[in-house]
Amino acid sequence: MGNESISVTQPVFFIPHGAGPCFFMDWQPADTWNNMATFLKSIPNRLPERPKAILMVSAHWQTSEFSITAGTKPELIYDYYGFPDHTYQLTYPACGAPVLAERISQLFTDAGITNEKNTTRGFDHGTFIPLKLMYPEADIPVVQLSLRNNLDPKAHLAAGRALASLRKEGVLIIGSGMSFHNMRGYGDTSFTEPSERFDEWLTNTVESVDSDERLVALANWSEAPHALDSHVLGAEEHLLPLMVIAGAAGSDTGRKIYSEQVLKTQISAFQFG
């Protein structure tokens, strides 16, 4: 931990991870993902200090109970389909962090949250794709946390609250999903305005001064304007990492740090702390 006399608290982030390996291949139009890539590369500069480890909450891993990668050398899971051959050769040789995995498991247990450690699970693209942009050297240990497959927002908010103390232990917590994720809507101009209205609600909620009101609103996200145009009920896994992040944020104020129209839909990222 070094000789720090003052405890540093890492901020927490909810980020978009794009579409499969989109940042590492040609796309039409060619600049579709440029701004998002630039944003992801900027995240290390937003931190008070270099993290000692990274905890990624990915939309692409769902289990019956919260699961934590606990292997020392997790492999990559190329869980995207129909992309160029070279994107299945991408590498991200970050080591795991079994000690951190055990710490996370204990925090969950102390909070009454059932969990399990998984020593064989690798990193899916919701983890390794954004990390290749943020920390291309892959020299920071990484642990990935699953979502619960019942997609209960309150359970994920509670999970985040249980993990909040890690922020003072040098751990960077990131939720990797998409603020808009309706496959039917991408590229369809009829979804542009609905996505903007939901994004407006999401921004107002994240930036709410009253953190208790924020948590209540997020728990009831499906009642928001155009929520079900933006995330299909029963398939809202790309929004759920935000719940973990909002729980870990505690009373910290949230703010939007990236927003643009991608594939005719509004996509945003948020930071707390």
Q: Which class in CATH terms?
A: Alpha Beta
Q: Give the H and E element order.
A: EHEEHEHEHEHHHHEE
Total strands: 8
Helix content: 25-40%
Mean of pLDDT: 97
What is the number of helical segments per DSSP (H or I, 4+ residues)? Answer: 8
Structural class: alpha/beta
Gap between N and C termini: 21 Å
The biggest sheet, with number of strands, parallel, antiparallel or mixed sense and barrel status, is: 6 strands, mixed
Beta percentage is 15-25%
Strand order of the largest sheet: 5-2-6-1-8-7
Protein name: Aromatic ring-opening dioxygenase catalytic subunit (LigB family)
Cofactor: Zn(2+)
GO molecular function: ferrous iron binding; oxidoreductase activity, acting on single donors with incorporation of molecular oxygen, incorporation of two atoms of oxygen; zinc ion binding
Pfam families: LigB
Overview of this structure, please?
This is Aromatic ring-opening dioxygenase catalytic subunit (LigB family). Belongs to the DODA-type extradiol aromatic ring-opening dioxygenase family. InterPro entries: Extradiol_dOase_DODA (IPR014436), Xdiol_dOase_suB (IPR004183). Pfam families: LigB. By secondary structure, the chain is α/β, with parallel strands linked by helices. The chain has a single domain, classed as Protocatechuate 4,5-dioxygenase, Chain B (3-Layer(aba) Sandwich), CATH 3.40.830.10. It is 30% helix and 20% strand. It contains 8 helices and 8 strands; from the N terminus they run E-H-E-E-H-E-H-E-H-E-H-H-H-H-E-E. The chain has a 6-stranded mixed beta sheet with strand order 5-2-6-1-8-7, with helices on both faces. Strand 7 (254-262) and strand 8 (265-272) form a beta hairpin. Helix 1 (34-42) crosses helix 3 (125-134) and helix 4 (153-163) runs parallel beside helix 8 (240-249). The longest helix has 15 residues, at 192-206. The protein is globular. The relative contact order is 0.21.
